[in-house]
Amino acid sequence: MTVEAIIESFQDFNINPTEPEDTQFQPLCFNPPADLRATCKSLSETPTYLFRVASPKTSAQTSSTWVRPKSTLPHEEDIFSNLDEGNKRRRIAALLNDHLWWKEPLNDPFVSWTSSPLVALAYIYYRHWSDSDGSPLEKINLYVIETTKFPRGTFIRDVDLLNVFIGSDPLPYGKNLAKLKNWREGNLYFGEYLSQGALQIEGKCQVINAQSIFAGNRLRRIQPAFADIEVPQQRPPWANEVLRLRRVLETRNGPRMQVQPAVLRDSMQALREIADLFENPAWRLPMAVYFAALMGDRLDENVATTPTTTATPTAGSAAALLEELRLFYTSSDIGLDCDQLKTKIIAPAAMPELIQTEQIFRLVHKDYTLRKALDTLGKARSFLGRLGCITGTVAAVDPDRTATKAILSELNTIIKDSKLIVVLDAFPQRLSN
């Protein structure tokens, strides 16, 4: 066994006996005082899915079981606890500043997540290429968690914390919270969310190895604007690369290049390959939607004859996309049968990748609802045909039409109660009887 293998085998080993290793473990939640709850509104408006990239050199220890920041001391307390005592506001502001500026202090209690897979994917490039890390792709993982499986308050948006602690920042200028806030309010917003303390993610996440994402050139088949991972850059960009890719995804004012049908089919094949990387089938539809949003205007296959300035996929490209996504409908648990999907997307104007994601989710919901309605109509047509065949039988045994009126009344009630699908097959037999 190599040294690297031995080290990796100890990733999930916990030498802290005070930390429970069971399913009853409760995360350390953010619980701001009443006067700050309006400022911390993201506690109630958290995206359903958050993403994180980790390598062996990442500051916070990350595995498929636990995520632990550098500071995981026993009896940790919420950063909002006793906030007005002593210099705690100033101390938390300093910790927040160090974390968001990547200073990696030993007493860092935070772990960062992003609501954008685009940001996470760009960070894989950065981790793989940078001198400070340089981990091979097979050592880098993409973690996706479902936030609804955690208590309210487990995650908070970085901007909310900036708004709370900016007045307590010990740094009056330079790399301080005020500068970060100014960037976040512009186009340098990356959908960052923070958790605090150790977080047990087993059973609430999916883990995809970075090597599998780039295998077979999958990512660039979905969106060719991504860089070639095999051609490293000496000073790898990250924030600027996200901005460059967002410009590719944003709405364009002029006619767009036509995507050849064969190229579009290959993109859909790559999308299916990436979706199949998720071990839990229930995750494949939402993750396929997230990755499909990275196609941007490549979804508009009819642009040669019908130029558009909208970011919504045109009818032809939507049909091609939906044909792929329908493969995952039956295994999905995002609430396709409900009036509203269970998936929450927070899509600010600065994040076109999430605006597109939200639009595709709506498209999927409409497609499923329409197909279900058409299926209902087909069954109704079949039902009415069978009903006509037994009309003579009913008339012969019911000369005064009493039974017929009762049957039609029941049918009317069934239709009004939207229970037609359930009883269509059984109803003609009941009529015959």
TrEMBL record:
Ranges of residues in domain DUF7587: 46-162
Molecular function GO labels: transferase activity
Domain of life of the native organism: Eukaryota
Identification of the protein by name: DUF7587 domain-containing protein
Species in which this protein is naturally found: Aspergillus indologenus CBS 114.80
